[in-house]
Amino acid sequence: MKREFHAPEKKLRVGVLGATGMVGQRFLTILEQHPWFEVTALAASPRSAGKTYEEAVGDRWKLDIPMPERYKKMVIHNVNEVEQVAREVDFVFSAVDMTKEEIRAIEDAYAKHETPVVSNNSAHRWTPDVPMVIPEVNPEHFEIIAAQRKRLGTERGFVAVKPNCSIQSYAPVFAAWKEFEPYEAIVTTYQAISGAGKNFKDWPEMVGNIIPYIGGEEEKSEKEPLRIYGHIEGDHIEPATEPKISSQCIRVPVLNGHTAAVFVKFRKKPTKEQLLEKLAAFSGLPQEMKLPSAPQQFIRYMEEENRPQVALDVNYEGGMGISIGRLREDTIYDWKFVGLSHNTLRGAAGGAVECAEALTALGYIAAK
C-alpha cells in the first residue's frame, strides 16, 4: 500500500540545540542548502549565549569543510530558554552535551512547548514511547508518537531519536536478511574518532594508536538493534529477542567512518546469491518517498576483496549509504562480512535529518 506523502509547502523553521559541538556543526552544514528546512535559531550552553556563532565556536570548528557564512553572525540562544527558542522554530534538532538526565529534561521541555524534537542523543533511546528509528528499517515505530503525546499532554510536541552511530553498518543488513532469521551474531566495530566529537588536532594521542574500549558502546551495539527490530505494544515499543549480538567496540585512528566485522548464524540457510539479492533490493520509506537525504541505493555490495575502505567508500551516497563487502562462509558461524558507514552523516546528523524528513512527509512535523 502506497503511503500518503506530504512535502512542506514552504520551508520549515528549525533550531539546532547544541549547535557549537561537532554534531551540531554537521547539522548546520547539512541544513545549509536543505530544500525543506531552514535554520532560524541556534542554541547552546549559557557560556555561548549572546555571542555570534563565529565567536562562540572560535577555533573549535572541527569539520574539514569551512563554516558556512550564513551562520557566522547568528546570535546564539541559551538552550535553557525554551520558550524563546520555541517561538522561533517549527521543530528542533538536539545535539546537546549534557548529562542524560539533563538531556531528557530539556528535550521533554521543548516537546511540552509543542516543538517536536529530533534527537541525536542517547538519553531517550530507551524511553518506552519514544521512537528510535532508521527510516529505511522501522518507520512504523513513529506511530508510538500518539501514545507519547498523550503522556506529555501535547498536540504537536514529541521526541524522536535516531540510534547509535556504530550499529548503522550492520543493523540494516540484518533487517534486509530478516526472512532468513538471523538469530546470533558476533560484531566488532572499528570506530572513528569523530564519534567522540574529536579530530586529530584535539586527540593527537590517537595518531597511530588503537584503544580497545569505548564507554557504553558495546551495550548499545548489542541492545539497540533489538529495539529497532521490535514492535509497538500499546503504549510502548517491545524489543525483539533476536538476533542475540555479542560486541566489541574499538577506537581506531580514522577521522570519519565506522567499520564492522560481523559473523552471523541463520535458522534458514541462505545462499550467497540470496543474501546479495536481498541487499540489492532493500529499500524503505525514504526511497519510496524520495526524501531529500535518502540514498538511492541504501546498501551496496562491493565485490573487490579489499573493499569497503574508509578512504575510498565512506562518502558513498553522500555519506548516507552503507557499503558491504567480503561476504563469505564461515567455519563456525554461517556467514561473515564487513560493513562501513559514515558515523557523523548516516550515523548522526544525517540520520536525524532523514528522520525529520520522514516525520514531515508523514505529517508528524508541520509548520506552527
Task: Describe what you observe in this structure.
This protein has 368 residues and is α/β, with parallel strands linked by helices. The protein has two domains: 12-164 and 349-361, Rossmann fold (3-Layer(aba) Sandwich), CATH 3.40.50; 166-342, Dihydrodipicolinate Reductase, domain 2 (2-Layer Sandwich), CATH 3.30.360.10. Helix content is 27%, strand content 21%. The protein has helices spanning 22-31, 53-57, 69-72, 82-87, 100-112, 145-152, 171-176, 217-228, 272-281, 285-288, 310-313, 345-361, and strands at 12-17, 37-44, 77-78, 91-94, 117-119, 159-161, 182-191, 231-233, 236-238, 244-251, 258-266, 299-302, 322-329, 335-341. The strands form three sheets. Strands 3-2-1-4-5-6 form a six-stranded parallel β-sheet, sandwiched between helices. It is globular, with a radius of gyration of 20 Å.
Strand content: 15-25%
Number of DSSP strand runs: 14
CATH-level-4 superfamily name of the largest domain:
Dihydrodipicolinate Reductase, domain 2
CATH architecture of the largest domain, by name, is 2-Layer Sandwich
CATH topology label of the largest domain: Dihydrodipicolinate Reductase, domain 2
Computed structural class: alpha/beta
**Low-confidence sequence ranges:** none
Tell me the domain tally. Answer: 2
Cα-based radius of gyration, to the nearest Å: 20 Å
Cα distance, first to last residue?
30 Å
Biggest sheet overview: 6 strands, parallel
Helix content: 25-40%
User: Given this structure, which CATH class of the largest domain is correct?
Assistant: Alpha Beta
